[in-house]
Every structure is written in C-alpha cells, then in structure tokens.
Amino acid sequence: MSAALRLGVIGLSPGNGHPYSWSAIFNGYDAAAMEHCGFPVIPRYLEKQRFPDDAIAGARVTHVWTQNSALSRHIAQATLIDHVVEYPADMIGQVDAVLLARDDAENHRRFAEPFIAAGLPIYIDKPLAHSRQAAIDFFALETRPAQIFSCSALRFAEEMLLSPREVDRMGGISHISARVPKSWSKYAIHVVDPILRNCGPFDNIRNVRARSFGPDGSGTEVSFEWSDEERTCEIRAFGSEPSPISVAYSGPKGAVDTQFKDSFSAFKSALETFLKDSVRGQVSHAVDVIEAMKVLELGAGVFSLQEND
After folding, report:
1. Mean pLDDT across 210-237
2. CA atoms of 225 and 223, how far apart (whole Å)
3. What is the DSSP string of 9-45?
4. For the segment 34-55, what is each residue's pLDDT rounded down to a tens digit?
5. Angle at which helices 108-117 and 132-139 cross, to 10°
6. What are phi and psi of 224, to 5 degrees?
7. What is the strand order of the sheet 59-65 is part of?
8. Rounded distance, CA 112 to CA 278, Å?
9. Which of 257, 253, 231 minimizes the C-alpha distance to 169?
10. pLDDT for 306 beyond 50
C-alpha cells in the first residue's frame, strides 16, 4: 500500500472557514474543539458524516500555517493536524501538495508563488483572481501542466447540476437567474461555476449591465447576453442582505430551479478532483477557470467601489 499523500493547508481569511472544513474532510475532527471554530455551520454538517468512513482516503493534512499562531494551533487541534509551521514556506519538502484555503484573491499570488516554483500542486480557493488576464498570468507560472487547481466547490455540487433530460424538458436554456449572499468579488463564483458547467463557455458576451442595489448599496447585479442563441443571464450578489445560493434556468418549454444544500459533499468532490487531476494526474482545469473570470470581471467596476466582506 502506498503512503498517504501529505497536504499542507494555508489560511485563514475573514469569513472563510475552509481551513477547518477542508482539513476535517481529510483527517476527521475533534468535535469539542470544532465547536469553537467560529463557523457554526461547519460542526453541524460534519456531525452528519461518519468518520473515518466519509473522510477522503489516501491523503492527510499534516501541516498548517495561518497568520496567527494561536489560530493555527486551534485548527490543528480541531482537525487533527500534526504540525504547525512558523512560515508557509516551511512546508516545502514536507508536503506533497498545498491547499491555499483563503478566498482573498488579491493575496493568492504572493502565497502561491513559492509552492508553484517548488513544483508542488496547489488548490487555490475561489476565486483564483478578479480578472481573466490575472488568471492567465497566474497559470503562466506553472512549472508543469495542471499544477494549479481552483474552483468553487459548487461546480461539483450534484444539486446544482442539470441533467440532459431536464435541459431537454425545458427545450434548451434561454434565461438564467442566479443569486448569492455577500459580495460579488467572493461569492459570484459560486453560481458562475455551475452555470459554466451546465451551459458551456461564455462565448460572445454582450449587452452587459452592472449596478449596485440594496438599502446600503452593497448588492451587485450583473446582467448580460451570450452565445449565438442570445441566452440571457442575471446574477445578483446581495451584499449585506441574506440570500440562498440558487440558480433558476428557463427555456421555451419550462424551468428548473437549483439551490445549494450540501457543503460537505461539494467540498469533498472538489478536493477529490484536485487529488485526481492535479496531484496524481495532469488534467488541467485552466480553461474553465479563465472562462469563469470573464463573468467575474463584469462586476469588478461595481464591487471595487464597495467595502468587501
């Protein structure tokens, strides 16, 4: 039997509990410590699983770094990580791959570059960047194909995916209406990725409209058309106002609504895809990431004027 892959995790950005959740999906967790992770939803969906049966086999998070040593030690305690390092680069030579579990895209490159240069596969939390060109520049750093992996885990959420039968029943897809909570810069990717998987590339984008909305102006709405079939799309990020993560698809014969529900399964599927395609294989997802950036940058002029969450 081959040795388990050793993973290092880097975190934590405000409002993002992925260093806890991702590490637990590999390692299992200490229930008492996890109750104090600061993200109440995480222990609630973890307690519905059966560990070690539901953990990802063949890999383990062995090293952790965050900007705060006490926080790093708590993540290690809650998710059974053996080593807390003083500097991120201390992981080089000690791990087989890295999970950059921060969603502040403006800091991704400075954290990722040492590991990319060292030849390590790296999963970079969504969104990789804020623009298509920035994503292209990021992938140009790769020292081998498929070294960089990035996505919203909702790209792999079964409840967000349409079956061919559903598309046929609608008579094709002519309009999409999507909504997410919080900021466009961090959360729009959660619907852009499943839309991309369901509908294909965002070719020939035109008639773009972007505006802020809501009582405090923290919401962002972007609408556009794309493809030769004149498909229309409207995406709303509700800022400080609550919202589900949902996408409604409609066509000439009917409609299908999708809503995100299962965080654990989506995260697990995304992490397993990283191991399969980037760590053990060389299957690149760069094209899909760059396609998603086309839509994310449509709202850049709006969210840059707002205070991001």
Report:
1. 92
2. 7
3. EE---TT--HHHHHHHHHH---HHHHTTSS-THHHHH
4. 999 999 999 999 999 999 999 9
5. 20
6. -165, 170
7. 83-84, 59-65, 5-10, 97-100, 122-125, 148-151
8. 15
9. 253
10. no
Structure tokens of 235?
A: 């995406």
- Residue 63, class by beta-carbon neighbours within 10 Å (0-12 exposed, 13-18 middle, 19+ buried)? buried
Q: Rounded to whole angstroms, what are the CA distances from 12 to 31, 71, 97, 163, 215?
A: 20, 9, 18, 36, 30
Per the structure block, which two tokens stand in for 81?
A: 């990580």
User: How high is the pLDDT of residue 307?
Assistant: 40
- Whether the Cβ atoms of residue 146 and residue 300 lie closer than 8 Å to each other: no
Per-residue pLDDT, 229? 72
Q: In 3D, which of 170, 158, 109 has the Cα closest to residue 134?
A: 109
Q: Burial of 37 by CB count in 10 Å (0-12 exposed, 13-18 middle, 19+ buried)?
A: buried
Task: Report the alpha-carbon distance of residue 84 to residue 101 in Å, rounded.
Answer: 15
Q: Output Rg (C-alpha) for the chain, integer angstroms.
A: 19
> What element of type H or E holds 134?
helix 132-139
CA distances from 163 to 99, 172, 206, 264 (A): 31, 12, 27, 21
- The SS3 assignment for 159 reads helix
Considering only CA atoms, which of 147, 122, 105 is closest in space to residue 296? Answer: 105
CB 231 within 8 A of CB 225: yes
- Reading the block at residue 129, the tokens are 């960047």
140-151, pLDDT tens digit by residue? 999 999 999 999
Residue type, 227: S
Q: Quote the CA–CA distance of 97 and 10 in Å, as a whole number.
A: 11
What pLDDT digit, counting tens, does each position of 172-205 carry?
A: 999 999 999 999 999 999 999 999 999 999 999 9
